[in-house]
Design goal:
Radius of gyration: 21 Å
Strand order of the largest sheet: 9-8-7-6-5-10-11
Strand content: 15-25%
Oligomer: single chain
Order of helices and strands: HHHHHHHHEHEEHEHEEEEEHEEH
Largest sheet: 7 strands, antiparallel
Shape: globular
Low-confidence stretches: none
């Protein structure tokens, strides 16, 4: 029944386009690729985008069985996370209040604050970040300079655009800015709280690109995995599959880059994982600032599409499902 529902929910035009891209890069028949996608869906719970992103056409069935696919990830989330607490992460002001002990920047919510509170915030932070309260993937996020603007007119524009959350602009660490200055380059750390113990399952550096003010992978950004010592030893990759040893915008090397305050970030995420234990599997976005570290946001449904990119795997091309299974399902 599940797979029948999945079939009827497919975007067939999008699927045809993706199959065409796979056929072109692999020099294989689109018909054979389609059949292999169907087989992989039944055997490994993967969708056609999983097949495309993870280069399944290059992998054996044994290798594919080690990958976290859409279905596998959904099963993890069902087991570890209680949807009744998703609002804490979906609603940005609620998240900021819940984790206020670890939030270092000022903010106001135009849905709750007075106009005088808004004016006081603008006076203190004339350059700020406007965000939708429930936005995702960085859409609707804008750095706004209020210098020389009519404050009342700006107030109306912000509300009309749905940018109700105004945050003090984070000044990131100089080293991170040298990598890419237009966005706050965040560190995604995935924690799993199981039986009172916090496990670090994955960490990656998300990097902005193309002049955009966000670093989201699905909005023009790129990412690379971080080793346990906080060093980047693999190139970055973007949504189009382009691989970068050096950032094209700044010329700063990505391979060999060392994350400032990485050990401190890990300890912070371990502490935060206990605040909402009902959400056992969480993706935290942390940034290095000129004054230490700050928490950007938490994700109750951490995206799995960045877990197993081809440039970040070892020569055996095995995925990280065994690592997650060992913690979540108690499998060795």
């Amino acid at each position: 029944m599940y797979f029948i529902k999945r079939i009827f929910s497919l975007d067939l035009h999008r699927m045809k386009d993706i199959i065409g891209k796979i056929a072109k890069r692999s020099n294989k028949s689109p018909v054979l690729i389609f059949l292999d996608i169907v087989i992989s869906a039944f055997c490994f719970g993967s969708g056609y985008m999983d097949y495309y992103v993870f280069n399944f056409e290059e992998l054996s069935y044994r290798q594919r069985s080690t990958y976290i696919t859409r279905t596998i990830n959904n099963n993890y989330l069902k087991k570890m996370n209680n949807p009744g607490f998703y609002h804490i992460f979906n609603d940005k002001p609620t998240f900021l209040k819940t984790y206020q002990e670890y939030i270092k920047r000022d903010y106001v919510n135009l849905k709750e604050c007075s106009y005088d509170d808004y004016r006081a915030f603008i006076a203190k932070h004339p350059v700020f970040v406007g965000k939708p309260i429930d936005g995702q993937c960085g859409y609707g996020v804008e750095v706004i300079d209020a210098h020389g603007k009519d404050i009342k007119e700006l107030y109306d524009v912000l509300k009309n655009h749905g940018q109700f959350l105004l945050e003090e602009k984070i000044i990131q660490d100089q080293k991170m800015s040298a990598l890419y200055p237009c966005a706050i380059n965040t560190i995604r750390i995935v924690t799993c709280l199981k039986d009172g113990q916090v496990h670090i399952l994955f960490s990656a550096l998300r990097i902005g690109n193309k002049g955009k003010v966000v670093d989201n992978f699905n909005n023009g950004g790129m990412f690379s995995v971080i080793d346990e010592d906080g060093v980047i030893r693999k190139p970055a990759i973007d949504k189009e599959g382009i691989v970068y040893d050096v950032h094209p915008y700044t010329g700063t090397p990505i391979v060999g880059f060392e994350i400032p305050h990485f050990a401190e970030m890990i300890e912070l995420c371990k502490k935060m994982a206990h605040i909402t234990p009902e959400n056992g599997l969480t993706g935290w976005d942390i940034c290095a600032t000129d004054q230490g570290i700050d928490v950007v946001e938490g994700n109750q449904l951490p995206g799995y599409d960045i877990y197993q990119s081809k440039p970040h795997l070892n020569e055996d091309r095995l995925g990280i499902k065994p690592r997650f299974d060992a913690v979540i399902n108690g499998r060795k």
